[in-house]
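TICKET: design request
STATUS: open
ATTACHED STRUCTURE:
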């Protein structure tokens, strides 16, 4: 791509000329000159400068088309490299850290055995941020949640993730009669006196649970707020409170029960009336060339998610 095109895309992503200039190690004036020449070349205004840097309608068009050009150019490089050197290249994947801890360890071991000459980068972030990075061309694929359909993307189904309540055996005995028998589904209204460990309000899991609470006029006792689901499970095992998780964490709970929590295992239940389901999918650009090492990653990822689907 032309340098001015690359600079334009960086400015569009950073929403700041000064930040964009620092990113490519040139002066702000030199960077601004590149953008000005691009605007003169196409006889358009690409950015609103005030109150803050933002794309004009023409800028939106250019950004979309340049991302397509960038995608085509990267695909061409990958295809030429594969033709020249065989299975060799680079692949970048975006995935939420909670999922990555569960899915990636076994996958990466097998992947590196199959494709030792491929440089694989795994980026952790919230699903919404990963989607932005994908459309900005910063990652090749990402595991997303409820991603809207677009003509530019291909979606591969991985899992329908449901919400579960998780509580330790000891905490159940502390807050409920010993003769209480729990079915596979529980009423959340019966747990309003139990302390809970919550995810931050930015998480999809929090929003799903909070929406259900509001709809049903329920209030839960909030003992802690922690972003890391794995830490929530460990604290639940220490009787600090109950918590919520989705389907992908069930195998992790089983492992904890077999290792660290043998004397106080975690139990998990579906919630009556809570029909919320997150559609977990792998997202990639349908217009790219897909080298063998990318197909291999997709196959292994589907295999890992199939294991977790079987635990559901």
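STATUS: resolved
RESOLUTION: sequence designed for all positions
ATTACHED SEQUENCE:
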């Amino acid at each position: 791509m032309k340098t001015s095109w690359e600079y334009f895309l960086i400015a569009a992503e950073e929403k700041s000329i000064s930040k964009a200039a620092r990113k490519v190690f040139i002066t702000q004036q030199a960077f601004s000159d590149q953008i000005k020449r691009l605007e003169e070349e196409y006889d358009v205004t690409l950015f609103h400068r005030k109150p803050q840097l933002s794309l004009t309608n023409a800028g939106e068009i250019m950004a979309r088309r340049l991302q397509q050009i960038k995608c085509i150019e990267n695909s061409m490089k990958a295809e030429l490299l594969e033709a020249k050197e065989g299975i060799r290249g680079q692949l970048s994947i975006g995935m939420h850290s909670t999922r990555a801890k569960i899915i990636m360890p076994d996958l990466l071991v097998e992947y590196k055995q199959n494709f030792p000459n491929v440089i694989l980068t795994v980026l952790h972030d919230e699903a919404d941020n990963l989607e932005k990075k994908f459309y900005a061309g910063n990652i090749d694929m990402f595991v997303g949640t409820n991603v809207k359909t677009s003509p530019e993307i291909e979606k591969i189904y991985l899992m329908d993730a449901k919400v579960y309540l998780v509580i330790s055996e000891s905490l159940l005995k502390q807050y409920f009669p010993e003769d209480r028998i729990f079915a596979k589904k529980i009423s959340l209204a019966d747990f309003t006196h139990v302390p809970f460990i919550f995810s931050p309000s930015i998480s999809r899991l929090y929003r799903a649970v909070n929406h259900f609470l509001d709809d049903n006029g329920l209030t839960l006792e909030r003992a802690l707020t922690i972003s890391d689901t794995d830490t929530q499970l460990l604290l639940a095992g220490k009787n600090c409170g109950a918590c919520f998780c989705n389907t992908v964490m069930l195998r992790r709970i089983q492992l904890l029960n077999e290792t660290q929590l043998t004397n106080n295992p975690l139990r998990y239940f579906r919630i009556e009336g809570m029909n919320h389901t997150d559609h977990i999918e792998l997202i990639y650009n349908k217009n790219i060339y897909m080298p063998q090492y990318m197909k291999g990653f997709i196959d292994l990822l589907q295999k890992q998610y199939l294991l977790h689907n079987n635990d559901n």
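CLOSING REMARK: The first strand starts at residue 47 and ends at 48. The domain at 1-86 is CATH 1.10.10.10 (Arc Repressor Mutant, subunit A).
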